[in-house]
Amino acid sequence: MRGDFKASSQFYVRAVTHDPSKGSAKSLAPLGAEVVTEDLNDKNSLHAAIKACYGDFLVTNFWELFSAEAEETQGRTVADVCKAYCDVTATNMNISRCPSDVHHFDGKPNYEEYIRSSGLPASFSLPGFYKSNLPGMSLGDMGDGKWVLALPMPADSPILLFDTEGDTCKFVKAMFLNEQKILGKRTHGATAYYTRTEIFDQFKENFPNMDKETAFSQLPGDVFKGVIASSGAPEPI
Fold first, then answer.
1. Within 13 Å, how many C-alpha atoms sit on residue 24's CB side?
2. Fewest beta carbons within 10 Å, which of 48, 67, 149, 165?
3. Among 77, 72, 48, which residue's Cα sits nearest to residue 61?
């Protein structure tokens, strides 16, 4: 935002963080951002963070408490605070309503409905599959020089990947600069559609030890749930 002349001439950036001691938070002040502390579970801190803002970009945190209900409460609380101060809100949703229980997505469409019914001017960002999820969890060296990409989807399905670190700001900036065009709408964000071959080719550029032998494994749903559970997530995930 600060590096774009048009955007920086219209907006002053306030960066909101849970932990201002992190290097990523400290790096923002030299770029011209005001860095403030907030806690999505503390309404008083939200008032201090959002007060006098024209707009707010909201990202709730399911993984902090592993609770769809807690995440929904975060979304509703931020919306209530934004109504007191903001002219527009951009919300990071990840996904619309799922046909069956996917607990780390279940709270998001509920607070989207709440925001819409509240009358708060808002638009909603739905990013694709995070690129950062691939190394280690879905893509790895099997120990014999063979690299396997394992996901619960058919091998020929294109994957809508999203570079959260490099591209989130591009979509958020566009949402604020074009607010009247997209108000009330969902913006689907992706860096590109990738085939499994393209994913392997890109990783080979960064992992020269990746052998030429690669494979895709379509994981059954229960196996993929086991992978998620190994990260410490509770059984309902």
1. 6
2. 165
3. 72
How far is the C-alpha of 224 from the C-alpha of 215, rounded, in Å?
17
Cα 158–198–128 angle (5° rounding)? 45
Gyration radius of the chain's alpha carbons: 20
Cα gap 174→83, rounded to integer Å = 22
Question: Which tokens go with 114?
Answer: 């709440």
Report the distance separating Cα 184 and Cα 2, nearest Å.
25
Mean pLDDT of 192-215: 82
CB atoms within 10 A of CB 217: 13
Within 8 A by CB and 6+ apart from 38, the residues are 16, 17, 18, 45, 46, 48, 49
Instruction: Tell me: pLDDT of 215 over 60.
Output: yes
From the centroid of its chain, how far is CA 121?
A: 21
Q: Across-strand partners of 151?
A: 218
On whether the CB atoms of residues 96 and 120 are closer than 8 A, the answer is: no
What residue has token string 């670190």?
A: 165
CA distance 33 to 31: 6
Helix axes 103-118, 68-85, angle to 10 degrees: 30
Q: Structure pTM? A: 0.82
**pLDDT confidence of 14, banded at 50, 70, 90?**
very high
